[in-house]
Hints:
- The chain is an alpha/beta fold.
- The chain has a single domain, classed as HUPs (Rossmann fold, 3-Layer(aba) Sandwich), CATH 3.40.50.
- Helices cover 46% and strands 21% of the residues.
- It has 5 helices and 5 strands.
- Strands 3-2-1-4-5 form a 5-stranded parallel β-sheet, with helices on both faces.
- Strand 1, helix 1 and strand 2 form a beta-alpha-beta unit.
- Helix 4 packs parallel to helix 5.
- The longest helix is centred in the middle third of the chain and has 21 residues.
- The chain is globular.
Amino acid sequence: MSTQSIVAGTDGSASADRAVEQAGKLALALGATVHVVTAYRDTSAASWMAAAGGFPVGEPISDEDARIQAEEVVTRARDHLVSLGVDAHGHVCSGDPAQALMTVADDQGAEMIVVGNRGMSGARRVLGSVPNSVSHNATCGVLIVPTT
């Protein structure tokens, strides 16, 4: 018998923490494993997109720094789930967050992806709504958690 898998997306925000928490509760109830996923964008592409949209670009961040920050986000969320007794693993991906969630879900044979209903805001919002994209394109169930 294979273990059920749940994929939970996080960007490290308080609203994403609520979605990860819900994934943990489901995992405990079902005896499932949670795969926590975050994605970071190639900063040169993100800067170009922001500049093309007329948005101010903040202090440049290297791809390595973006990856390190993403690893810290995933580690924090994974460690929290483990402290609750959940079998949890972290995944850091480069690229589109929605695609990262769906790829990990497919790779892990996940039954469900859990995301918060509040996506990124401000200049990053122009890059798309993760819950919207996942709900329309995932090949497994999707739980969109109210995070307000």
